[in-house]
Structure formats: structure tokens, C-alpha cells
Amino acid sequence: MYCETDDELLELVERARKYTEKGKVASYIPALERANQNDLSIALYYDDGRCVRAGDVEKKFTLQSVSKVLTLALAIMDRGEEEVFSRVGMEPTGDPFNSIAKLETQIPAKPLNPMINAGALVVTNMIAGDSVHQKLGRLLSLIHDMTNNTDIDIEHEVAQSEYDTANLNRSLCFFMKQHGIIQGDVEELIDLYTKQCAIQVTCYDLARIGVVLANKGLDPQSNRRILPERIATIVKTFMVTCGMYNASGEFAIQVGVPSKSGVSGAILALVPPSIGVGVYGPALNEKGNSIGGVKLLEMLSQRYDLSIF
Ligand code: DON
């Protein structure tokens, strides 16, 4: 795909890169620790097919929590809005992404929203299919459609590394299984969840996913419908209210566009109705969001007046 280097964008990347020194690469999943602290890159994809880039955009990284947006879209397509939101809520939380605290404060232990781990595990539990392989295949196929890139696959070392250490996520699952919120085998669910987190992409892929969401679920080039408009609206709204974890409120003020982050340093963002944005910067701030990536999006939003509010 042709994507032009943009000098103004490059200047913003170099300014934001200074902040990467102050962040920390995630180490709780051993395979993520090898990322380069100072990496920072961005791609923007427009609905007319244009693409601009800055930084090392060929670099691959894993989706991590960005996958929560895509599994939510798939689960709603599979089960319908009513069933999905009978098992997971729609409200933001001020807690860290992997917190177990709120689950015990209401019985049944329905997680507050699909962007925190507890909620995302419930959503993954609702993906249709007879096996982990089939469910994952359906998720990959949605991602292939949104990115127009059929090469996207799992990074098995990251998946295995997280599977071996995902004891907090196992605890969330066992707690929710006890209360009837999730069904079936917990190990299978953790297997699928850790694989969805380990799907490997580039900034271009994120930007292409973003432009499909910005364009209300339609592929901007072929005009083919990939997601129902209603589902695109739901996931974009969660990105605004819960996409940057317990920094979502500040991010909405400083940047003001639907965005979803992951511990790999990925940020999927979009500017309705016509721009998809993919950012990668593995050094994280204390809330678990890319420190350089958030700075870069703040600068970009201010310079081009991108806030939707
Ligand atoms: O559940 C986990 O621990 C990760 N695989 C995904 C979490 C994540 O990306 C949180 N992001 N800020």
C-alpha cells in the first residue's frame, strides 16, 4: 500500500518522542519487554484512500486491549445487543483495567463495561464457534476485512507468554463463572483471549480499522458493509467513554476523538467521518497508555482541531 511520509507529522513525532524516556515498556507479559522504549510511529488513513505516515510504521506489535473493540463488534453481530448487554454493562469505571474490585460489589457479578478485562473476557466468551480455532478464525477474518490485509495472524510467543502468566485474568473468569456470567471452560477462554491480544499488526492496519469505524462500518474503498452502522456507533462510543481506561476523561478533554489503547503501546483512534489513525509507542505512562502516543495525539488534535466535542 502506498503511504506518503508527511513532514509536519514527522515533526510532531519527534517532539512527542522526547516523552518516551519518561515511560516504561510493559513487563508483566515477558515477551513484551523486548520492545524498544523510544519507538514512536503513526499512520493516518483517509476515506478517499490516501495514507500519510511518520516514524517506523513498518514495525509490528500486538493488539493487546485494542482487540476488545473488535471482539465486542463480533460478539454483538453474533448474539445481538440485548444478549451482550445483559452480561456486560455500559458504564465507565475509575479502576485500573485488570481490577477485580467492582465485581464483588454487585451480584450478579456483571462487569461494568467491555473495555476492562472482566468485561472483555465476558465478550470473548460470547463469540460464536465450535472451538478456539474457529472463534479465532472468525475474529481474524473480521480483522482481515477491516484492514484489507489477509496476512495478519497471531504472534505465538506473545500469546504463550501471556497464557503462562495470566493468573489475574483466570481469577476474574473463575469469579464470574461462579456467578453464572461466563460459561464453559476457563482455560479455553484464556487461550482464546490471550491469542486475540497477540494478533500482530502495524500502524497501517490500525489506521485502516479506524477508517472503517469512522465511515460507519463501510469499507471506504469498496463501499462494502463490514459492520452494521449501529455496531460501529456502539464501539466508537465505548472508545470515547472507556477506551483509555481510567484516563478516558482526561483524554477526551485533551484529544477528543474515539481511541483505544493496549499495553503493547498501540492506540487505535479515528476522527469521524473520514480518518483512521494508528499509533505505536511501547513506553507506557502510569495508567498503561502509550506515553508518546498520547502526547502525539494531543499535539495532532490541537494542531488540526480534531476534537469531536
Ligand atoms: O489482559 C491483559 O493483561 C492484556 N493482554 C491486555 C491488557 C491491555 O492491553 C491493557 N491495556 N492497557
TrEMBL record:
Alphabetical UniProt keywords: Acetylation, Hydrolase
Record field: catalytic activity: L-glutamine + H2O = L-glutamate + NH4(+)
InterPro entries assigned: Beta-lactam/transpept-like (IPR012338), Glutaminase (IPR015868)
Protein residues bound to substrate: S65, N117, E162, N169, Y193, Y245, V263
GO molecular function: glutaminase activity
Gene3D superfamilies, A to Z: 1.10.1500.10, DD-peptidase/beta-lactamase superfamily
UniProt EC number: 3.5.1.2
Similarity section: Belongs to the glutaminase family.
Name of the protein this chain belongs to: Glutaminase
Species lineage: Bacteria, Bacillati, Bacillota, Bacilli, Bacillales
Gene of this entry: glsA
